[in-house]
Structures are given as C-alpha cells and as structure tokens.
C-alpha cells in the first residue's frame, strides 16, 4: 500500500505545483525545503512528515488535506 | 507553527478515536502501530509520517485528509 500511496501523493503534488506554474526550485524555496527533497516527494520516494506537508501546502496556497486527498479507499 | 499543528492534529485524532469508542490500545492494534506511538501523536509529540497517517485513518475508517483538516490558515 505504502509505495502506491507515496507515488500518488507525489503525482498530486506535482500537478498542483504545475498548476501554480512553480518550478521545484521555487516551491522548495517558498517551503523552506531542499529542491532534491521536493523532487523525492514528487517521485514518491519520501514518506513526508506532517510538518513538511504543511510547509509545502502553505507554499502552494492549498490545504494540506488537499495534497493527500488522493481517493485511497479507506475501508 | 509546528507545535500548534501537531497538537491540533493530535486533538483531532483523539476526538475521532473517542467517537469510534476505541481505546488507544485497540486503535494501535488496528493500525499496526504501538500504543505509545498513538499516545504521542495524540499529545502532539509526534511529527507523523504520511504512511502512518494513512494507517491510522484506515483503522479509524476515515480519510487521512480528515485527520489533518484542522482549519490551519494556509495563506
């Protein structure tokens, strides 16, 4: 379950970033995170923590819940 | 920002758990996590990762996004 989850969230993040016309570099700067970290999240390689999730969401001007709302069946 | 965030999410988790009439022990068992970990999350002491967030949400039968939807201003 975990890998699919992280990959789906990474794809969701990338889609929102691109809608905002932000590069990984500018998103990383806005979120006070490293560009390689953002790249890792988008590739589904990072098990993001809540604090970093909120930093990224704030930088993208979306709710953190939107970043992880990927329609994973929860039952 | 971070401490308030983790405390608010912890309180939100506890409220949902109690609505489900689950003890920390049974939630931990359902989520395949340790009770002390659940306790730490509820006290705002744990910077929960996405994978654990989804495990807890699945155990509570809620969407992970609901667990972190604590109305933090994102602008």
UniProtKB/TrEMBL annotation, chains A, B:
Keywords: DNA-binding. Residues 13-67 form the HTH cro/C1-type domain. This is Helix-turn-helix transcriptional regulator. InterPro entries: Cro/C1-type_HTH, Lambda_DNA-bd_dom_sf, TransReg_Diox_bact_type. PANTHER family: HTH-TYPE TRANSCRIPTIONAL REGULATOR, METHYLPHOSPHONATE SYNTHASE. Gene3D superfamilies: lambda repressor-like DNA-binding domains. It comes from the Bacteria. The lineage of its organism: Bacteria, Pseudomonadati, Pseudomonadota, Gammaproteobacteria, Cellvibrionales.
